[in-house]
Amino acid sequence: MDEEATSSPSRRLKAPYAFLDACAYRSLGFDWDGRWLAGIADLARRGLLKVVITDVTKREVDGLMREAIAKAKASVAQSAVVLRQTGMQEMVAKLDAEEACLKAMRAARDKWLRQCHAVTLKPEADITVLLDDYFNQKPPFGPGGARKAEFPDAIIVATLRAWTTKNKRSMYVVSGDKGILECCSLSGPLFSTSSVREILSHAAASVAIHEAIWKELTETDWLADNLDGDLTGAFEIRNGQRRGATVSVAVESAEAHDQEIQELLIDEMQENEVTCTVYLWVKVKARVFVTQDPVQIGPDDWDRGWRDYQYIYPTFTTTVTLAATVTNDNSVDLRSAFFDDAMIVLDFEDIVRDLD
Predict the structure, then answer these.
(1) 12-205 — its CATH code?
(2) pLDDT tens by residue, 272-282
């Protein structure tokens, strides 16, 4: 690991999420496979960054892509004679099919969003707060009659703020709009940047740290040995009746029996302290106590009920919060790991069936 990279917090990613406004996508030419947007997708593949997009932004991007198609159509029309004489007249016909062109561009965008593990947010805004900001000329609203055009931006900012607050996450906001950038702050959770290039410039050190943590997790037994989490309280058992008798299941103990790391996301870097989210597949070993109450089957026929202990091995996916320190010798010291709010839902019939 490069010493300068790991010892320079200013060169690391500030946030694990990034939002690009519609104009940012236009400035990059909707070139989903180009250098800059492909760079964002690569960070997502490495587990360093996820893209956030809102429904409002998707609609804005659709409108801007329609404009791009119209401009391309006008440009091609000016060269129609040349294209016809060189055997490329089909370009004119293809651009005439505007909806087909837009469908193809949407498909390319959606493919990129999937590569970026994008999170799509529904609009979430308090209309009273928006109106207060509008009349008080607070960002993203500015002075003058053009303020009404900023309502979509205000809805987007409100949605991003609500999501980052609810999920306790921070986020880059890529925009050339002064009003949107003024809604961000140096302390977050929304960090302003005018270009994707700035995000990518911060990524080199973060990539090295991410790879070091991933290697430690996947090539050693550290997580299995140090994962702090009694899963006994994580079970939700749906009790019920079987052959007319009440059956109840109590989980007496539960722990991770096997696990497989699916993804690693760096959430925060403060100086040399790193906090990560590990996406984990877990196989649980649980000891359960099953009780069936007595029940009358016929006039002179009773089932006295029974009790039995059993081990079960359910599987589920969850997240683990991991803390690590980047040490002075450029290595990573994993410090602690614990399960987040894990929940394992089981039906009593799935457990009792194995006792028959």
Answers:
(1) 3.40.50
(2) 888 888 888 98
